[in-house]
Write a structure and sequence with these properties.
Largest sheet: 7 strands, mixed
Helix content: 40-55%
Radius of gyration: 22 Å
Bound molecules: pyridoxal-5'-phosphate
Mean pLDDT: 97
Oligomer: single chain
Strand content: 15-25%
Low-confidence stretches: none
Distance between the termini: 58 Å
Order of helices and strands: HEEHHEHEHEHEHEHEEHHHHEHEEEH
Shape: globular
Number of helices: 14
Structural class: alpha/beta
Length: 395
Amino acid sequence: MTPRPDPLAFLSAELESLKQQGLYRTLRVLDGEALAHASYDHRSVVNLSSNNYLGLTTHPKLRQAALDAVREFGVGSGAVRTISGTMAMHVELERRLAAFKQVEAVVVFQSGFAANAGTVSAILNKDDVIISDALNHASIIDGCRLSKAPIKVFPHKDVAAARAILEALPAAQKKLLITDGVFSMDGDLGALPALCDLADEFGCIMMVDDAHASGVFGRHGRGTVDHFGCHGRVDIQVGTLSKAIGVLGGYVAGTADFITFLHHRARPFLFSTSHPPAVTAACLAALDVLETEPQWMERLWENARFFKAGLAGLGFNTGLSESPITPVIIGEAALAMKMSDRLFADGVFAQGIGFPTVAKDAARLRTIVSATHTRDDLQFALDTMGRVGRELGVR
Ligand SMILES: Cc1ncc(COP(=O)(O)O)c(C=O)c1O
């Protein structure tokens, strides 16, 4: 029998093309715990590539809460939330998150991605319009596409351009104005107060994706809405439980009616199984830690200031970062990947990021410090980056 031709063979050609552009990546494998100094691919490295801002992935209280939950409740919820998969601890987590974010209600999704994509697509349709920052996260973009509403993109943080778009739209049309709170590849903050002003003036639904701000900005890590004093001006806040919170999941915060509507219409909520008990219990423990152990946020920011100053002193282009995410912008993808590989070989894990995650000529190393890096870790990373950068002519 002649072998069946592989109908997916065209993908091999795509992969070859990625290799030629220097964009082909293999997955680094974490050998043990997700620590600030960790082992990947059997190599001990200072880990500058994790979203584990506060070190909560291995915090004893979260670990214990997860273990206790497995013993008491087992390993799965058994169903989607709307059928039989809502456990008392899911409801408790949402109650705690709503109090934390100072809103009426919260709904938890399986991930931040599902929260963004599920929310935007649930509340808008083809007759509405979305005004979106050019650097908004992929999950927002996918949610916008799923909604079928036209998407008007304004240049990154260009509030005047957003205004010009709004001025040209019919007053009666339903409008969503949407921005990241912290931009995940550049580390700068969304133009929140100015965008809230626009939302007020033009009657927009105002939405902020605070994935990288939860646990990092605002009082006890309440996010950029708290940081900028914009409570009551943002209709929809998205957060994740997968980054600073150290576990997994996403949530949407807003009014009680809005959240109840999502229970009825957000497709990831309706059609995908809810979190297992260990995940939910660990998230609850993380909220306790945020409220009672402010030292992690303090250390995070001390480390971020130290590392940013070090990178700037080395003459790297670190863009406009205002958060613990600091890019080292290199330009050409092949050079960024080469520098990332050289650093890894020398004990520093700073992932190279290229197109389509960032623009074609803006490939970079993306670094994130954590509260649990030691000064020695960070100094070693700076020394190594300085040396490798010099050798490769990156400045
Ligand atoms: C800005 C932003 N929003 C949403 C997400 C998705 O969050 P999660 O990893 O919880 O799905 C991410 C994660 O990459 C992100 O960077």
